[in-house]
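TASK: fixed-backbone design
INPUT:
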């Protein structure tokens, strides 16, 4: 997993990539503990849309982070089912040829698309 950290005047942001499991959870835990010393009232944001897999230890860590006040966000559609359940988000709509299926159904109902 790649962990990117962005520090600004009013927020501190972690951007997660790839898996959040086992050793990666320990790395994020250490990075979070280190970041706590410089937060000084800043909002802590966890950007999670790059996570492809999360295990039970990853969910526990994200839960602790959220309970401490961190915001867990996804700037784009999540592909990790476990993370979707954790965030109480519905699964992403499947795509066909780059278009969402619900949009195709609407267009077909309106007889705009075949």
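OUTPUT:
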């Amino acid at each position: 997993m790649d962990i990117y950290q962005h520090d600004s005047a009013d927020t501190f942001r972690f951007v997660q990539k790839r898996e959040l499991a086992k050793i990666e959870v320990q790395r994020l835990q250490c990075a979070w503990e280190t970041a706590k010393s410089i937060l000084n009232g800043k909002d802590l944001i966890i950007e999670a849309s790059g996570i492809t897999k999360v295990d039970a230890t990853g969910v526990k860590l994200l839960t602790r982070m959220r309970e401490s006040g961190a915001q867990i966000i996804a700037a784009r559609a999540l592909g990790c089912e476990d993370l979707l359940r954790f965030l109480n988000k519905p699964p992403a709509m499947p795509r066909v040829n780059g278009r969402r299926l619900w949009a195709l159904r609407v267009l077909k109902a309106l007889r705009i698309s075949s």
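COMMENT: The radius of gyration is 17 Å.
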